[in-house]
Amino acid sequence: MKTWQALGGWIGAHLALLAPVCVAIGVLTPGIFGPVNTYAVPFLFACMTFQGSLSNTFRQVLDVFRHPLLMLLVIASAQVVLPLIAYGLGLVFFSGSPEIVTGILLEYCVPVGVITFMWVGMYGGNTPLALGTILVSTLIAPFTIPLTLQVLMGAVIHVDAVGMMLSMIGMVGLPAVLGMLVNQLSHGWGSRVLSPAIAPAIKLFVIVIIISNSTGMSDYVLHPTPQLLAVAAFVLMFSSLGYLWGLGLAHVLRRDHPDAVTLSFACGIRNISAGAVIAGQYFPGTPVIFPCMVGTLLQQILAGANGMVLKRLGRREDGLE
């Protein structure tokens, strides 16, 4: 058991360095890990949510909804403010390519990513706040995505609201309820014993998810174009801004470190796979998909780097540096 726990600890401590390696493996081996992204990733996400929820109680989650101001501010930042800024900057840098601007807007108006929950839990964030934010963000996305694209770009699309809801129920809702139920009925055994026991497996799942999510970018990375490189530079810059925005919001609101961790990841991580699906369905054969695919490639690398920053900030607050 000690070796197993040590493996999980090592992966968690080095995930920021492992993420680029995982991305490279996914890009170079799409035929091997591509099917995993289709068939296994939803199950792996469900396992991650279950493990993270073992440390929560129903009362903690209900408290988030009883006092929803912070959650609503995060959602407003993630799905209103940051998309508007991305749109404005997209017009500045890619004025001659409305398809790229549409792709940039689409990438940043999709809901908060499910994997946010894993990163928040790994770096000691407020997991009930993360869970509530992911659920509400996803619930409103079928309405906010078409509205945002219609108002700003004049693009009319119809998001599969039922499909998105069923996906979130399977990956987030049911596993979260089950995890909290196990913890509550076992009087804390789930949090004290079960969660640490399966945590190393969850870290391994994260590696598999990063690799499999990167397979879709294989053709683009192996055959880069000047336009793609320009989009990659923009996405790298703006996605980094999302994490900083969350930290800045936590500082302005004078929130504690766990809340700052949650705000940073929730403002920085998007459900980009949903954006890629929408781009492929409604804008086939156009550069609209470029920002979403580049975001898929860079998102976990940036999340790992953000985790290192947050860990350092946490040590400073604890007086360890």
Question: In short, what is this structure?
Answer:
The chain contains 15 helices and no strands.
Explain what the structure shows.
The chain is 83% helix and 0% strand. It has 15 helices and no strands. Helix 5 (69-93) packs parallel to helix 8. The two termini are 31 Å apart. The mean pLDDT is 84.
* Major β-sheet profile: none
Number of DSSP E strands: 0
Helical residues, percent: over 70%
Question: What are the segments in which pLDDT stays under 50 over at least 5 consecutive residues?
Answer: none
Radius of gyration (Å): 19 Å
Category from helices, strands and their pairing: mainly alpha
C-alpha termini separation: 31 Å
Shape, principal axes of CA atoms: globular
Question: What is the percentage of strand-forming residues?
Answer: under 5%
> What count of helical segments does DSSP give?
15
Mean pLDDT score: 84
Secondary-structure element pattern, one letter each = HHHHHHHHHHHHHHH
Question: Can you tag this structure with a few keywords?
Answer:
321 residues, globular, mainly alpha
Protein topology:
Blueprint: H1 2-28, H2 30-39, H3 41-53, H4 58-66, H5 69-93, H6 98-109, H7 116-122, H8 127-153, H9 161-185, H10 189-214, H11 218-222, H12 226-252, H13 257-268, H14 272-282, H15 289-317
